[in-house]
Amino acid sequence: MSDLAQVLELMHTRWQRWTTLRLEGHEWRHLETFGRAWQHHVEELHKGGAASARSIAFKRSDGRQPAAESREDWRVWLAKPDKSRTEFQVGDATVTAVFIGRHWWGWSPSRGFVTNNGAPNHSHGFGPAEALIDPARHLASLQLGDVAMATFRERQAFQVTALPRTDDEHAFNRTFHILGTGADLYKLVVDAEVGVLLRVQADFRGHAFRVIEVDDISVNGRFGDATFDSNRLRNRLPAL
User: Fold this and answer.
1) 104 within some domain
2) CB-count burial class (<10 Å; 0-12, 13-18, 19+) for 14
3) What is the domain count for the chain?
4) Cis-peptide, bond into residue 135, ω within 30° of zero
5) Structural domain harbouring 226
């Protein structure tokens, strides 16, 4: 089996390869290049007659010059068949959400405690880790290229380059939104055991502008009952 075939099999069978997963990582952005990639995307939309996309700018509320780069941490817990928990930063605040089946419960400093009470038409963001845990969903939007064996975080992995498929440049594409809108090249690191992405990098004209990366991973560990306890979330108690 070729390396590319192994990568595709890993991506398509990732849910069969683990019982629980705990991932901790970070998202890094180079804000100027991030903005230039987005602006290029907007200009391409306008060329085709689309007028709904807006330019993007990073500003501080106090008026001072924003930093050149940003780094935000995130954590997720996944347990089959249908439990997950996410914690991620939005600015200086931490957003937390628990998902069990069609139900979710969330807490953030700005909104307090919220829940959908099982209603499928109300959703909650999962944070940067969404880009990593279900790589097969990206395949329709990416053209995979070079594949090479690698070691990442002391784990066997595959390094993969990918080009965006832009057959319909005017439609919203969730893969590009999650991985980095406006990129002309993506660089993926696929875990050789469980098939999730350990790292994804979005490049624009030879410069990285967004990286979502795993710093620590635990496969098939045991979680306490409190991890997915919505009452603890409601009362702002930490997961055990």
Assistant:
1) yes
2) buried
3) 1
4) no
5) 3-234
Q: What is the C-alpha end-to-end distance of the chain, expressed in Å?
A: 42
CATH of the domain at 170: 2.50.20.10
Angle 20-105-221 from CA coordinates, rounded to 5°: 15
Q: Is 240 part of any domain?
A: no
Residue 239 domain-assigned? no
Could you please report the per-residue DSSP string of 133-171? H-GGGGGGGEEEEEEEEEEETTEEEEEEEEEEP-S-TTS
Structure token digits, residue 130? 């969404």
Q: Which helix (H) or strand (E) holds 32?
A: helix 31-47
Does residue 104 contact residue 97 with C-beta atoms inside 8 Å? yes
Q: What is the pLDDT of residue 42?
A: 87
Confirm whether 157 is domain-assigned.
Answer: yes
Across the range 106-132, mean pLDDT stands at: 93
Q: What is the pTM of this model?
A: 0.89
